[in-house]
Every structure is written in structure tokens, then in C-alpha cells.
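Review box. Two proteins, two foldings.
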Amino acid sequence: MPNVVSSFFRESYAELKKVVWPSWDRVVDSTKVVLVSTVLFSAFFGIVDFALTKGLIALF
């Protein structure tokens, strides 16, 4: 069993050395895109939900 665990960590470490990590600027830019997109979609769906709720209340 210990051989399996040590083999797993050794292979995982070898694979992580192959990863091309993004630069800090790239991470910050991607985070900004995600945050802005989340806010815009939330606002859109909030407005649609509000309008549909008011429309259904007026209908019934």
C-alpha cells in the first residue's frame, strides 16, 4: 500500500512540472472577466425574473 501512495505522489509531481502556469496578469484579467460576466448575467436574470413576476401577478 505505501508503494501505491508514494507512486501516486511521485507521478502527480511529475505531471505538475509539465503544466504551463499562467502569469499573474493573465490570472487577474481572467478574474475580472469572470466577475464582470457574473454581475451582468445576475442583473439580466434578476430583471427578467422581476418582469415575469410582475407580469404574472398582473395577469392573475
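Next protein.
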Amino acid sequence: MTAPDPHGHSGIHSNVLDAKTIQSSSLYNEDLAPIPASRRSWSTYNYAALWIAMSVNIPTYMLASGMIAGGLSWRQAIFTVFLGNVLVLAPMLLNAHAGAKYGIPFPVFARASFGVLGANVPAILRALVACGWFGIQTWIGGEAINAMVVALVPSWRDYAAGVWICFAGFWLLHVLVIMRGIRTIKILQGVTAPFLLVIGVALLAWAVVKAGGFGTMLAAPSKFQTFGEFFHFFIPSLTGVVGFWATVALNIPDFTRYARSQRAQVLGQALALPTTMTFYSFIGVAVTSATAIIFGQAIWDPVQVLARLGNPVAVVIAMLALLLATLNVNVAANMVSPSNDFSNLSPRLISFRTGGLITCVVGVAVFQPWKLLANYSNYIFGWLVGYSGFLGPIAGVMICDYFIVRKKIILVEDLYLRRGFYEFSGGVNWRAMAALAAGAALAFIGLVAPSLRVLYDYAWFVGFGMSFILYWIFMRAPAATSRPRV
């Protein structure tokens, strides 16, 4: 049987992978290899559980509570979160298709558009963002452990190095999980997802009782007096919500490569992502609003809220639940992808586990998460919106390439070979690089030119649109196809 040539060449290629050929390639290792159909066991429930577990976490809570602190009403904040997650679901499902169809991870999928060597650029950009997120989540988990210890041993509060010891302990826990591999993630999601939702409901119930009901805790109006003032805050907030999952929107093939079918991954994601994110964001909004009544000030950090529950047993139970949630999302969203991405740099030298260890070190040493969480403005408008200016253009190139240029046809064997269809020029598709650079430049020009600030506020959307269009134009030009295998 022959496979259609996605570049218009007349060469004949077998649909059946030549295992010996790709296994001897410098671009191959077992962690990056295509997953055979016999090993694709993830069902709709597994993907729904994955998103429930990844959505129920402290950064989700802080995303919504930060909007309340910034001046939105609870209705405006919930609408912003829901709309942003519906929007990011589209590129998520589009990129997920190739993983489910061909069983390949994100960095290998990127080789089809950026070239077998050029794929390292989007992979490393994605990996660095994940490292930053890993550091943020691990620091939050360390703070939760510290609060839990203080509840049990009040004198621990006076120990200056206490929070750093707790942080180091939580960091080591991640190292142990990554050493056990991808199967641990499936187990964690399936077992803990329902439990985490119960804990969220319990926290909401506590806030309702303490604040005197929903009517009281949600009575605060928006601080914006005009639509213009609201819109000025709404747009970067919406971009921040999209940016929140722009990382996983790229590396979702790392998970859908295990899907039993396209239907399983599409249903699981479509049902769980927008609904769970909106529900848990509502908990963040409601509880933050309630803290203004209960404690006399709006507290957007849930660790600080839980630390004030008063009952040591309640504090310990709540902190354990949040720690489990943080571990779940950190491993699934912020360690799987960079582990594969770093492995893609040198498949023969860097395994999945080694890539995970690199993530653990870079996420703390380079990004210093305790500084990224200084305030809600830095978190939403600096961190989330900022990195979306890089990830939007990558998504634009990859989605255009897979659906428009290649019509969903990929020659998997060639993704692991030099001088194959995805060789382009020395292993790099410079047209993809140019489209990526142009999209990112347009998004970030708003930081340099104040009059064009709106481009930065729309960073992900601007970058995606520009790169998508330019890549389509570039690939229609003469000699735009990659070079056939010789």
C-alpha cells in the first residue's frame, strides 16, 4: 500500500513503519516513538479526568480571584474564564488530532512543519514556559505544606527556613513521580479527579456559611464605570485565560497519542475543560469575595485562606487536597511536555526521565517562581499574556501546516529521518521560522510602542493569526516543500 505524498512528490513510501530504520536514527528514542494502536488505552473518562484534575488547582483559583481583585464583578470574571476556555479548546482539539491519529508526541509532530531539526525551536519555547509553570506550582505546593505544618506545630511559623524546606520536599516528590514515567499520570488522574471536586464544593460551602449566603458574598459590583474601562481590563484578562492553557494546546498530542479513538479524546476534553475550569473558577471568585466579609480584606491566594480556617484538622485535610491537585496538574501539564521537548534536542542522550529532571532544575533555578507570584497583575498580564505571544504563533504554524498544507497526511517514518520529506533546508523549515518570528514580533511590539499596546493585550490571537496567514502564503510559494528522501 502506498501513502499519498503530502508535498506533491511522486516517491513511493510504505504506510508501515520501518522499525529498524527509524530506531537507528539519531532523531529517535523510545520515549519519542509512535505509540502503536495496541497500546492506546485512554478512554473518554481518562481525558475528562485529566482535565478535571488539571483544572482543579491553585493557579486556576488565582486566575479568577485575580480578576475579582482587579475590579471585575463575579459575573464578568466567570464569563471571561468560560469564554477563554471555549476559545482555547479549538486549537487544543485541532492539535490533538495528529496525536490520536499517528501516535506521535508534540515535538515529533512539530517536525512536519518546522523541520526535523527546526522543531527544536517551538519545542524549547514550549518547554521553557512549562518550566516556569512547574516552578510556580511547586512553590505554591511548598507554601501549602508549610501552612499545614504551622497548623499542626505553631512554632514552625518562627522558623525562617521552614517554607524553603517544605518547597524542597515537594520538589523531590515531583522527581520521584517523573522517575516512574507516564503511567503514573493516568493512575493519578483516574483516582483523584472526583475527590478533588468534592473538596472544592466543601470549600465553597464553608465560604457560603461563614459569609452569610451567596447574596452577601457576591453582592460587590464591578468597579468599572464605563464599557471602555471594562473592555480595557477584559481583553488582556481574556488573553490571559487563553494563555493559561496555550501551553497544553500545543503539547496535547503528548496525551492524545494514547487515545483509543478520536472520539474518546474529543469528547473527554470538550466535556471537561470549559465546564471544570468555569466551575472551579467560580469557587475562586466566590471564596475571594467571601474573604472580604469574613476577614475584612479580599484574599486571592487560597493557601492564605485555608491557613486561616482555625481548625488544625480542617487545615490539614484542605492542604492535602490542594497538594494532591497541584501534584496532578504539575506532572501532567508541566513535566510531560518539557520532558519530551528536552529529549527531542538529543534523543540518544536525553531520555524522558532525564528531560523531566532538567525541567525540575530549570523551573526553580531560572524562573524563581516566588518572584512571578508577587501580585495578580504580574501573574495575569505579565506571565500569562506575555508567553502567549510566543505560543500563539507556534499554534498558528502547526495548525495551518497540518490541516491546510498537508490535509492531515503525515509520513510518520520521515519524521524520524534525516534527508526525508521533512528535511527542508538542513533540517529547518525557514518559512515556518519566519512566520513564527513575525507573529511573535507583532504581538510584542505593543510593549515597545505604547500606542500599539492593544497588540500585546491580544498577544495570543495576534500572533496566531499573523503566523497562520504568513505560513500559508510562504508555503504556497515555489520550492516551499520539503526535500524528498534520497
